[in-house]
């Protein structure tokens, strides 16, 4: 099994990712760290605890981290994830609470105690990871790699060019990419393509299985998106695809590419990915700044992840 820590901003598709991660026998979810992003920190913690209850996995420690990005105020994503963060899904309150102390301390203790290097799975703005790596840089020695949902080598969503998680805290993403720890980018190029087909999602929503109804509600979430945007998001498994990448990397085409997080101007939050086949003038003339080398997912066998997702949850 792969020992993992999830960093989440639950979040409709973070919820799908948590359900998938705790159900997959190849993953050992040691803890979950929460950050403001898709919803406020308080909501994210509550949503995460409720989803773990629904998954029947209540022993996993959950901790609260940063309530805002490093430099900017937190910005609402209620137009995508609803006021509560789980769209139209309503779950009973959890009896459990977050563990005392910040999620940076939870991650630190889990990483230090692990006999094997840990994989960090970041499904949210990377504020917690950046704070942790700044405060405890030596933890990098026991981190295998950081797999993150974020960025794009093509289109954005938060802006025309920036993906939400990186856009929400670009400095944090830059710190993480520059940390020297191997990083794997599951960006919009693949994120936007992996989903459960509409008839299946609707059948789950209206079916008998309690877990299936939750998954169906999350997949068919249409919070205030309006008819045209609803189709953009409907059925996507979103962050759960980044967890699929851990257990079935063979469904992805990836390339090790130079990546730079843009911090200024309209491009703020964009991940520039150098896809050139040959060095250009900037490199030839020594004008190319230091860019991070990132393994970037560029293509995906979407049907394979759809099957993996449903099979793992016992919903096929
Ligand atoms: C990312 O931002 C959030 O909306 C999702 O949970 C995902 O992590 C997509 O840009
Ligand atoms: Ca997320």
TrEMBL record:
<dbReference type="InterPro" id="IPR036452">
    <property type="entry name" value="Ribo_hydro-like"/>
</dbReference>
<dbReference type="GO" id="GO:0005829">
    <property type="term" value="C:cytosol"/>
</dbReference>
<dbReference type="Pfam" id="PF01156">
    <property type="entry name" value="IU_nuc_hydro"/>
</dbReference>
<dbReference type="InterPro" id="IPR001910">
    <property type="entry name" value="Inosine/uridine_hydrolase_dom"/>
</dbReference>
<dbReference type="GO" id="GO:0008477">
    <property type="term" value="F:purine nucleosidase activity"/>
</dbReference>
<feature type="domain" description="Inosine/uridine-preferring nucleoside hydrolase">
    <location>
        <begin position="4"/>
        <end position="305"/>
    </location>
</feature>
<dbReference type="InterPro" id="IPR023186">
    <property type="entry name" value="IUNH"/>
</dbReference>
<protein>
    <submittedName>
        <fullName>Nucleoside hydrolase</fullName>
    </submittedName>
</protein>
<dbReference type="GO" id="GO:0006152">
    <property type="term" value="P:purine nucleoside catabolic process"/>
</dbReference>
<keyword id="KW-0378">Hydrolase</keyword>
